[in-house]
Write a structure and sequence with these properties.
single chain; mainly alpha; globular
């Protein structure tokens, strides 16, 4: 089958490619920003209670949740050129992750609400809130793990990133899922098994920020 190139589409294609490259670099920055926001927010929420630290911790945690959704939205156009179903699944799973993490943050903040704490036993309420936050976090990370496997599989097949890096992501996210399931059934291996995936997000985020994606192996032709 012969594909006839139409020159008048060239400016549009160039603009789309430039826009996608910008999206990818922003997504790379958000990978790093999300990690910083989560770690800093978690530290503030775990610190000795003060209204300022609790408020800042909550804001940073919510910023992390919004960032993970934004990452998937920014990567969607590029991933969809390779697999629309895969890109849609990745977006849906990262939205799920973001919502669950935000819900977990809300649960942590509720015990510090003056009206609620005066009506309910604060100690019991805090214990319940922490357990719900833990459940939301582990479930959110499972969503991230499956979404990450799908995303990295697309990246691997299209060689948008070096294949060793995409393979690292697939393995890292698979270990994340295993670790979260282990945590939920009582085995404390979640943190250790999350390390490879966390390092992948740091390295891939820097790669995307500095270099963007390679030209896909399977180009989509516009005509």
């Amino acid at each position: 089958m012969t594909i006839v190139k139409q020159p008048h589409h060239t400016p549009t294609i160039i603009l789309l490619l430039m826009e996608n490259k910008l999206h990818i670099r922003i997504a790379g920055a958000l990978f790093i920003l999300a990690m910083v926001c989560y770690m800093a927010g978690n530290a503030l929420l775990a610190s000795p209670y003060s209204k300022i630290s609790i408020a800042m911790g909550g804001i940073l945690q919510i910023a992390n949740s919004l960032s993970v959704i934004a990452i998937a939205a920014l990567l969607y156009p590029t991933l969809a050129t390779q697999s629309k179903a895969g890109a849609s699944a990745y977006l849906a799973l990262r939205i799920t992750e973001g919502i669950l993490l935000m819900a977990g943050t809300v649960f942590l903040l509720l015990p510090h609400d003056t009206m609620l704490s005066s009506a309910i036993d604060t100690e019991i309420f805090t214990i319940i809130a922490k357990k719900l936050n833990y459940l939301m976090y582990q479930t959110g990370m499972i969503a991230l793990g499956f979404g990450g496997i799908i995303c990295c599989s697309i990246l691997f097949k299209a060689v948008l990133l070096p294949r060793w890096l995409s393979l690292w992501g697939i393995i890292g996210y698979a270990l994340l899922v295993v670790g979260c399931v282990a945590e939920l059934i009582g085995y404390p291996y979640g943190i250790a098994l999350a390390v490879p995936g966390g390092l992948f997000e740091l390295v891939s985020g820097m790669w995307m920020l500095l270099k963007g994606f390679r030209n896909p192996k399977n180009q989509v032709t516009l005509s």
